[in-house]
C-alpha cells in the first residue's frame, strides 16, 4: 500500500556517486579526452587490421610519418603557415559576421532586403570566391585570407541572426528603463544571450575555415597544410595526409581543452547544470 | 506502513536538502522537515519568504532528487499530479488553450473546457499566446491547466497572487469545487494567512531557512462556517498559537 | 557497334587532351574496327580519375609513369602504355627581357603541379647543374592551379610560368614564347630522346586476363593518333571539344602532333629509368617513396615485342 | 518647463507609417527580393563596366550563357543531379546530426567523452573523407552522399548541442509533472526551443552541403554542377561558372522565399515581432 | 502647460491603446485613460486583473510607443526613472549584486550597498545567480535595483507579492524611506487595498478592460496616523465610495 517513488537511501547514494564522478569529470577533462582518443585509436587500429588497405594506414604508421615530418621541420612550418591563415580569417569572419548578423536579426526591413544577397554569398562555391579573389587582388596572403573570410562570413551571419531574433525583449526593456550605456548593453544584455550562437558559429566556423584554407592553399599558395596534403594526395600517400590532418586536429583539441572549454564553463556557470 | 484498507497519507521526511551555488556558497534549504497530509485533506504551507517552501514542493514533484530523506505520495498520486508553479510556466509558443490541453492525458485531450475558461475569465483569451497575457491572466491559465487534469494530488505554489481580491475569491471557490469533486490531496503554499484559514484543513507553519515545522494549526471549523467574523477569530487564534510566525 | 564487343571503361577529363583522342576513336569507330567497345567516363579532374582507378571503377586512365612506378613499388599492379611525350615548359611573354635560365633569378615564377612536379624538378636540376642556380632560392616561386597561373601570366603578375603543355600551347597563341621545355631538360640531363610523360594506365591483372582487348585498345589509339597527325579536318571537327579556334587550335594541334610517341618502348623504358634516378635525387623520398629505382614492369611488357 | 518625451502626434504618425510598411513587407516579400536582386545586378554591372576583365563578365553575358546551357538541356540535367544529392545529404545530415547533437547537449558525460571525436570529424578535410569513402565504397552515389553527410554532420551536432545546452529547464519540469509522452515532449517542448538552432544549422547547412557536393562531384562523379564548374574552370570560362552557380543560387532563393520563410514565420509567430 | 516655477506633474492622457494578437484578435487595453500625479506625490493604480495597468506603466516607461494619446513626465524624470516590473526581470547570467550595480549610473556604480542588502535580507545572497533565488528573494533583488538608483520617478508593478507579511511590511517602510529621501514621484500598481491605503496620497481606481479611471480616492490622513484601526476606517470609506471596485 505504500506508493512512494522516492526513497532516501537510493537517492542520496545516487547523489554521492554523481558528485564524485562530476568532480572527476570537472577536474580531469584531459583524462577523459585521453581515454576518448585512445578508444578512437583502438577502433581505428582494429579497422585497419581487419581491412588492410592503402587507403587506411594503421595509426602507428601515421604516427611514424608524423614524427618524421616533425623532425624535418616541415610539419612545424606548414602548420604554422596554415594556423596563422586560419586565425586571421577566423577573426575577420567572426567580427564582421557577428555585427552584420545581429543587425540583420534586429532590423527586419534591412534583413528582408539583404537576405537575397546573403543567400547568394552563402551559396557561392569556395572555388569561385577564391579564384575571383586571387584574380583581383593577386596571389597574395591578403587575397587568400580575404577569400576565406568571405566564404565564412555568411555562415556566421546566418547563425548570429537567429540568435538576434531569439533575444528576450524583457532584458532589453530593463536596459532601456535603467538607461544602460551602449557598451554595457552589448556586454551584459546582448553577449550573454548570443553566447550559445556565438559558440556554435565559432566551433563549426573554425572547422569550416580550416577546410577552406586547405582549398585556398591548394589553389594558390606555396605552403601550408593544404599545399602539403594536396602534394601527398597526388602521390596517394594517405598516411602523410592523415599525419598532417591529425596534427591540425591535435592543435584544435588542445585549444578546445585549454581555451574554449574553460572559457565556456565560465560563461555558462550561471546555468544550473543538468545531470 | 499503513494497515491495509486505510488510505496512505502524503508523508514527508526530509533530513536535509543543501544547494551549492555556482559561486561555491552552500545553502541549507531544509533540515529535518517532516509532516503528513492525510489523503483527501487540504493543507497549507506557511512560512517566511525564502524558507524552502518551493524547494519542498519540487522534491515532492520529483523534480529534485538530490536530497537526503524520503517521502511517500498517497496512493494513485504518482500518475495524477497537478501543480501550479510559483511562476506560470506556460509554453510561450503555444496558445492558452493548447497549453491547457497539452497537460491533459490522452483520455481527456478533447474535453470541453468552456466552463472552466469562463469561470477563470479566459474565454476571450483562448487563442492568445502567453506573451500577450497580463501576469494575472497567465496565472489563471496555469490554474486552468492544473484544474483541467482532474488530479489526485494538487500542489499549489502561491496560486492567487497578482489577482484582484474579487477574482481571487472566485478562484478560491473554484479550487474548493475542484478539490471536493473527487478525493484530492492538496498542498498549497501561501503567504496570505486569511486565505490559508479559509481553505485549509490544517496549516503547517515553517521556520525561516533551513525550513523546519514550527507547528501545525488545525482549522477545526467546518468550511461553510468560515465567514468574515469567524475568520477574524481564527486569525487571532492563530496569532496566539504562533506569536512569532507571519 | 557490335553488342558482343568487350567493353573498356576509360576515365578522362572531359575537356582534357586525352578526350580528343578518345573522341576521335569513338567518332571514327576505331574501337569497333578493333573489336572492342570503348566507354568514356568523364571526370572533372585528374585526381578524380586516379581515385576512380584505385577504387576499381575503371579499366583504363591516363596518368604519368612516375605515379605508376610509385604505385607499383607499393604493391599496386599498375602498368602503362605510352600516350604522349608532350611535357610542360616555362613560358614568358614574347617581349620579356628573359632569354635564359639565369634571367629567371629574382623573378616571380608560377609553377603548376606543385613542388614535386616532374618538369619543375628537371628544370630545377638543369639550372643547378649548368648555371649553379637554385631557382627555389633565387626567385619567387608561386605554386597554384594551372588555369589560375595562366591567367596570372597573361595579366603580367607573373614574369614566367611553368605549366602543362596544353596551357603552354594556349599561351603561345596569346603572345608567349617557350623559354625552356622540360624535354630540353630531359635531354640535357642524359635522356637519349623524348620519354612518354603520360600513358594509358591499367592493371596487370586486367591486361593479363584480356590481352587481346588491351592490345586492341592500343591499336585503336594508334589509329586515332595517325588520323590526328595527318588530318587537319579532324581537328576542325574537334574544335568545340578543344575549346579553341584559329591560331590557338593550330598551336595545340602542332604541339599535340609533336607529342605523339614514336620510339621503341625499350628505348623509352631505358630513358625513363635513367630519369627516375635523376628525379629520385632531385625530389628525394617525397617524390619517389622508398624505391630508388623505377619499378620493373612500369611499362607494359607486352608492347616490347 | 514641460519635460515630456512622448508626444501623441508623432507617435501615432510613426505607428501608421510602420503599419503600412509592415504590410508591404509582409505581403510582398517577393517584391523586396526582386528589388534587392536588381540592386545587386546593378552593382555587378557597374563593377564589370568599370574594370572589364575575363574574370568578371557582365551580368548580361552570364545570362546569355545561362540561356544557352538551359536550352541545350545540360543545365537542367546537371542541376537536377546536384540537387538530388544535396537534398539526400541534407536529410541524412540534419536528422543524424540533430539527434546526436541534442543527446550530447543533454548528457554531459557522453559529451565529454565524444567531444574529441567530434573535433576530429569536424576538422577532417572534405578531401580526406571523400577519397576514403570512394575508395572503400566505390564510386557510387551512396558513397558520394554519405561522404557529404559525414562532412556536414559534425557541424549540425555542434550547433544543436549548443541549443540543447541552452534549453530552459522549467519547461521540461512542467512536462515531467504533467507526464507528457515522449512524442509530445519532443514536439511541444524540445522542437520550439531548438527551432532557432535548427534554422541556423539548416541554412548554413544546405550551403555547406552544396559546397561539398561540388567537391564530391569534382572528385568522382560524371555529372552535376560541381563537375561542370570544374570543367569550365580548366578553360577559365568564368561566365559559365557563374551561370551554373547562379542557377543553383536561384533555386535556393526560391526555396527560401516560398518554403523556408513562410514556415519560419509560422514557427515564430508567437514571438512579439520587434520593429 | 505649467506656469514657470511650478513643478510639472506626471500627466497621462491616452486616448487608445490596442493590441493585435498574433492570431489576429484585437484587444483594446486602454481607452480614454487620463490622470495626473503631482510631482513628489505617491499614487496607486488599483484595478481588476487584466485591465491594463501594466500596459499603462509600459507606455510611461517608453517601452511601448504604439498608442494614441500623449503623456508627460515630471521634470528631470526622463533620465532618472526606476521601475520594478511585475516579474523580477533579473539578468540570469549576472549575480544579484551585479544586477543591482548594473542599473546604477556611472557616478553611483561603486556605491556602498551593504545597508540596502541587509534591510532586504539579501546580504548572504549577493553572489548568487537569479536562478538560485526563491521568487520572493528575486523580487527583493528587483526592489534593491530600483531603490539603489535614487530615482526621480518610481514605477512599481505589484512589488510586494510573493512575500510574507512581515517582510512585506519591512519593505513598505523601506519604500517610504526611499520615496521621502528626495522629491520622488511614485506610481504603484497593487491589488492590495490596505497596502494602497497605507502608502498612497491618492488611489486611482480603474475599470475593467479597456481601462478608464473610475474615480480617485484621496487619502487625506497623514501617513504617521495610519495605524490598523485608521486603516480599517479608510477601507470602509473606500468601499462606500467605490462599492463596485475591488
Ligand atoms: N538552485 C539553487 N541553488 C542555490 N540555492 C538555491 C537554489 N534554489 C533555491 N535556493 C535557495 O534555497 C532557499 C529556499 O528557496 P525556496 O525557493 O524553496 O524558497 P521559498 O520558501 O519558496 O521562498 P518564496 O516564498 O520567496 O518563494 C533560498 O534561500 C534560495 O536562495
Ligand atoms: N502583446 C500583447 N498582445 C496582445 N494583447 C496584450 C498584449 N499585452 C497585453 N495584452 C492584453 O492587454 C490587456 C491588459 O494587459 P495588462 O498586462 O496591462 O493587464 P494588467 O492590468 O497589468 O493585469 P494584471 O493585474 O493581471 O497584471 C490584457 O487583456 C492582455 O491580454
Ligand atoms: Mg517559493
Ligand atoms: Mg500587470
From TrEMBL, chains B, E:
ABC transporter domain boundaries: 12-233
UniProt entry tagged with the keyword Nucleotide-binding: yes
Keywords: ATP-binding, Nucleotide-binding, Transport
An example molecular function term from Gene Ontology annotations: ATP binding
SUPFAM superfamilies in the record: P-loop containing nucleoside triphosphate hydrolases
One Pfam family here: ABC_tran
UniProt family annotation: Belongs to the ABC transporter superfamily.
Protein name: ABC transporter ATP-binding protein
Amino acid at each position: 500500500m505504500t506508493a512512494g517513488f522516492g526513497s532516501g537511501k537510493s537517492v542520496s547514494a545516487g547523489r554521492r556517486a554523481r558528485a564524485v564522478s562530476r568532480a572527476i569529470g570537472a577536474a580531469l577533462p584531459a583524462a577523459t579526452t585521453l581515454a576518448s582518443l585512445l578508444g578512437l585509436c583502438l577502433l581505428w587500429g582494429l579497422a585497419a587490421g581487419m581491412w588492410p588497405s592503402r587507403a587506411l594506414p594503421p595509426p602507428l604508421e601515421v604516427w611514424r610519418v608524423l614524427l618524421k615530418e616533425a623532425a624535418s621541420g616541415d610539419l612545424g612550418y606548414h602548420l604554422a603557415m596554415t594556423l596563422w591563415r586560419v586565425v586571421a580569417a577566423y577573426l575577420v569572419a567572426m567580427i564582421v559576421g557577428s555585427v552584420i548578423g545581429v543587425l540583420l536579426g534586429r532590423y527586419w526591413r534591412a534583413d528582408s532586403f539583404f537576405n537575397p544577397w546573403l543567400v547568394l554569398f552563402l551559396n557561392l562555391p569556395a572555388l569561385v570566391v577564391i579564384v575571383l579573389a586571387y584574380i583581383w587582388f593577386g596571389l597574395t596572403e591578403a587575397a587568400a585570407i580575404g577569400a576565406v573570410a568571405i566564404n565564412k562570413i555568411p555562415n556566421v551571419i546566418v547563425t548570429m541572426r537567429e540568435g538576434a531574433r531569439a533575444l528576450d525583449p524583457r532584458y532589453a526593456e530593463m536596459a532601456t528603463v535603467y538607461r544602460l550605456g551602449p557598451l554595457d548593453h552589448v556586454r551584459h544584455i546582448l553577449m550573454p544571450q548570443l553566447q550559445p550562437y556565438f559558440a556554435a558559429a565559432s566551433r563549426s566556423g573554425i572547422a569550416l575555415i580550416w577546410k577552406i584554407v586547405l582549398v585556398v592553399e591548394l589553389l594558390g599558395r606555396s605552403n601550408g597544410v593544404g599545399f602539403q596534403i594536396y602534394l601527398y594526395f597526388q602521390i596517394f600517400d594517405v598516411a602523410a595526409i592523415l599525419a598532417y590532418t591529425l596534427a591540425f586536429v591535435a592543435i584544435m583539441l588542445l585549444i578546445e581543452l585549454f581555451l574554449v572549454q574553460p572559457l565556456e564553463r565560465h560563461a555558462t556557470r550561471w546555468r544550473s547544470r543538468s545531470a | 506502513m499503513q494497515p491495509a484498507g486505510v488510505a496512505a497519507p502524503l508523508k514527508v521526511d526530509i533530513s536535509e536538502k543543501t544547494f551549492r551555488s555556482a559561486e561555491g556558497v552552500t545553502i541549507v534549504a531544509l533540515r529535518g522537515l517532516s509532516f503528513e497530509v492525510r489523503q483527501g485533506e487540504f493543507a497549507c504551507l506557511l512560512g517566511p519568504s525564502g524558507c524552502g517552501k518551493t524547494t519542498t514542493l519540487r522534491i515532492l514533484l520529483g523534480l529534485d532528487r538530490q536530497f537526503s530523506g524520503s517521502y511517500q505520495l498517497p496512493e494513485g498520486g504518482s500518475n495524477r499530479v497537478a501543480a501550479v508553479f510559483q511562476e506560470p510556466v506556460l509554453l510561450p509558443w503555444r496558445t492558452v488553450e493548447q497549453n491547457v490541453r497539452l497537460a491533459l492525458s490522452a483520455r481527456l485531450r478533447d474535453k470541453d473546457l468552456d466552463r472552466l475558461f469562463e469561470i477563470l475569465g479566459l474565454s476571450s483569451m483562448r487563442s492568445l499566446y502567453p506573451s500577450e497575457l497580463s501576469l494575472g491572466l497567465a496565472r489563471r491559465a496555469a490554474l486552468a491547466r492544473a484544474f483541467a487534469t482532474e488530479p489526485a494530488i494538487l500542489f499549489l505554489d502561491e496560486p492567487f497572487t497578482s489577482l484582484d481580491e474579487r477574482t481571487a475569491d472566485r478562484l478560491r471557490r473554484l479550487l474548493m469545487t475542484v478539490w471536493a469533486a473527487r478525493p484530492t490531496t492538496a498542498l498549497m503554499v501561501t503567504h496570505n494567512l486569511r486565505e490559508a484559514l479559509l481553505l485549509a484543513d490544517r496549516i503547517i507553519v515553517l521556520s525561516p531557512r533551513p525550513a523546519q515545522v514550527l507547528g501545525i494549526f488545525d482549522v477545526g471549523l467546518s468550511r461553510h462556517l468560515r465567514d468574515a467574523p469567524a475568520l477574524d477569530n481564527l486569525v487571532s487564534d492563530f496569532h496566539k498559537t504562533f506569536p512569532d510566525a507571519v | 557497334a557490335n553488342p558482343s564487343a568487350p567493353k573498356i571503361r576509360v576515365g578522362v577529363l572531359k575537356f582534357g587532351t586525352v578526350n580528343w583522342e578518345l573522341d576521335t576513336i569513338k567518332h571514327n569507330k576505331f574501337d569497333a574496327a578493333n573489336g572492342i567497345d570503348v566507354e568514356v567516363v568523364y571526370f572533372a579532374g585528374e585526381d578524380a580519375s586516379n581515385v576512380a582507378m584505385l577504387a576499381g571503377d575503371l579499366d583504363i586512365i591516363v596518368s604519368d609513369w612516375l605515379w605508376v612506378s610509385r604505385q607499383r613499388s607499393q604493391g599496386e599492379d599498375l602498368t602503362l602504355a605510352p600516350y604522349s611525350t608532350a611535357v610542360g615548359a616555362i613560358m614568358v611573354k614574347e617581349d620579356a627581357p628573359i632569354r635564359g635560365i639565369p634571367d629567371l633569378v629574382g623573378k616571380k615564377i608560377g609553377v603548376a603541379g606543385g613542388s614535386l612536379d616532374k618538369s619543375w624538378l628537371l628544370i630545377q636540376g638543369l639550372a643547378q647543374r649548368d648555371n649553379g642556380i637554385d631557382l627555389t632560392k633565387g626567385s619567387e616561386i608561386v605554386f597554384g592551379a594551372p588555369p589560375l597561373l595562366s591567367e596570372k601570366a597573361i595579366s603580367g603578375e607573373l614574369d614566367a610560368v611553368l605549366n602543362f603543355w596544353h596551357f603552354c600551347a594556349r599561351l603561345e597563341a596569346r603572345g608567349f614564347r617557350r623559354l625552356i621545355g622540360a624535354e630540353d631538360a630531359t635531354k640535357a640531363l642524359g635522356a637519349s630522346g623524348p620519354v612518354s610523360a603520360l600513358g594509358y594506365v591499367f592493371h596487370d591483372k586486367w591486361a593479363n586476363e584480356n590481352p587481346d582487348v588491351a592490345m586492341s585498345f592500343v591499336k585503336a589509339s594508334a589509329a586515332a593518333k595517325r588520323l590526328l597527325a595527318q588530318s587537319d579536318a579532324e581537328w576542325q571537327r574537334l574544335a568545340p571539344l578543344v575549346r579553341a579556334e584559329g591560331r590557338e587550335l593550330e598551336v595545340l594541334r602542332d604541339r599535340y602532333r609533336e607529342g605523339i610517341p614514336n620510339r621503341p618502348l625499350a628505348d623509352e623504358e631505358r630513358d625513363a629509368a635513367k630519369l627516375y634516378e635523376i628525379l629520385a635525387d632531385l625530389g628525394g623520398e617525397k617524390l619517389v617513396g622508398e624505391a630508388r629505382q623505377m619499378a620493373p614492369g612500369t611499362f607494359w611488357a607486352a608492347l616490347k615485342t
